[in-house]
Amino acid sequence: MNKTLVLTLIVLSQFFGTSLWFSSNAILTEIATAHHLVSKNLLANLTIATQLGFIIGSLGYSLLNIADRFYANRVFSISILLASLANAAILIPNLSFSIVFSCRFATGFFLAGVYPVGMKIAAHFFPKSVSKALGVLVGALVLGTAFPYFIRSFNINLSWFFIIFISSSLAIVGGVTMLFLNTPSKENVQKININIIPKLFKNKAFKAASIGYFGHMWELYTFWTFLPLLILAYKNEHQINLNVSLWTFLIISSGAIGCVVAGKLALRKETFKVTKTSLLISATCCLICPFSFWFTPYVFLAYLIIWGISVVADSPLLSTLINKTSLKNYNGTALTLSTCIGFLMTIISIYFFNLLLKEMNIQYVFIFLAIGPMIGFLSLTKKSLS
């Protein structure tokens, strides 16, 4: 099968699967209203349910070496089917909070067999250009993250029922599509090997790449989460007319360009050098943030676009390094495990950021996000990855 077609099918299947996460997060208010749910921090709890499900799921997939013991395309397809059913279960009327929470948790849990496994499949098909393939793959996911803001910017009133139904249906299509690809056969791994996790982290190169990824994740999702508030604060400070949702979409989606460009650059230059450059730029953006409210609107928005590009450009490159430095036959487990810990870092970072917001203005809080990319920058050296 043509390589371009293969990558297109992988990207579409992955995009359809992760739309279960992104599209539902954009309509949590409507879901809560439809089921008459009223509780303190309801929306935060439903958001955490999906994140927590993904973390527990990816830990389980890692411990059981599922992505390496079974055919990757079948793991992907079964996981995406179960995730779509859990997502669609919310359509049942008059559910209690615990049931809705469980549905979101289960959706996140089974998505652990979609995102990391999709990266393993892409790495199999493009062994000599992994960074480029993952750049396109992660770039598509960035667009998926940003797309709900694009819809919201036009005040389009779509039924939450319709969004859930379509996202679940597309996810099933993605799962079926993956079955037709000549995806990698199962690795030479027959038994569960729980000891593989400590063995992975004894590998100096894998540990360095993973620390880089964890630092990157400390910044990424917190930046995406609180970006609309930063733009809104600037808008109120300067009393100007800004479409917050549209600019949030443009800034987050600019990261897709960063992923694709960084992936191609890594083919010509050393991957870790391109990764470190991206980490350094995004860390600098964090440190500049307190002064950004002095910028004119055009400079402020240009600055945020640069940040939006650099904050995620290193993501496919770090996954490439993790894939490259993992133990033989266990790259699926390695990618799933690193993703698990990375998403755990996002919860800690978002919680910490939210606490700081109660004590200081938002432009000053973003300084603390620089901790992540700076740790990642320092962990990636030629010596540590050799």
UniProtKB/TrEMBL annotation:
<protein>
    <submittedName>
        <fullName>Predicted arabinose efflux permease, MFS family</fullName>
    </submittedName>
</protein>
<dbReference type="InterPro" id="IPR011701">
    <property type="entry name" value="MFS"/>
</dbReference>
<feature type="transmembrane region" description="Helical">
    <location>
        <begin position="362"/>
        <end position="380"/>
    </location>
</feature>
<keyword id="KW-1133">Transmembrane helix</keyword>
<feature type="transmembrane region" description="Helical">
    <location>
        <begin position="71"/>
        <end position="92"/>
    </location>
</feature>
<feature type="transmembrane region" description="Helical">
    <location>
        <begin position="157"/>
        <end position="181"/>
    </location>
</feature>
<dbReference type="Pfam" id="PF07690">
    <property type="entry name" value="MFS_1"/>
</dbReference>
<feature type="transmembrane region" description="Helical">
    <location>
        <begin position="130"/>
        <end position="151"/>
    </location>
</feature>
<dbReference type="GO" id="GO:0005886">
    <property type="term" value="C:plasma membrane"/>
</dbReference>
<dbReference type="GO" id="GO:0022857">
    <property type="term" value="F:transmembrane transporter activity"/>
</dbReference>
<feature type="transmembrane region" description="Helical">
    <location>
        <begin position="246"/>
        <end position="267"/>
    </location>
</feature>
<feature type="domain" description="Major facilitator superfamily (MFS) profile">
    <location>
        <begin position="1"/>
        <end position="386"/>
    </location>
</feature>
<keyword id="KW-0472">Membrane</keyword>
<feature type="transmembrane region" description="Helical">
    <location>
        <begin position="98"/>
        <end position="118"/>
    </location>
</feature>
<feature type="transmembrane region" description="Helical">
    <location>
        <begin position="42"/>
        <end position="64"/>
    </location>
</feature>
<keyword id="KW-0812">Transmembrane</keyword>
<feature type="transmembrane region" description="Helical">
    <location>
        <begin position="211"/>
        <end position="234"/>
    </location>
</feature>
<dbReference type="InterPro" id="IPR036259">
    <property type="entry name" value="MFS_trans_sf"/>
</dbReference>
<feature type="transmembrane region" description="Helical">
    <location>
        <begin position="334"/>
        <end position="356"/>
    </location>
</feature>
<dbReference type="InterPro" id="IPR020846">
    <property type="entry name" value="MFS_dom"/>
</dbReference>
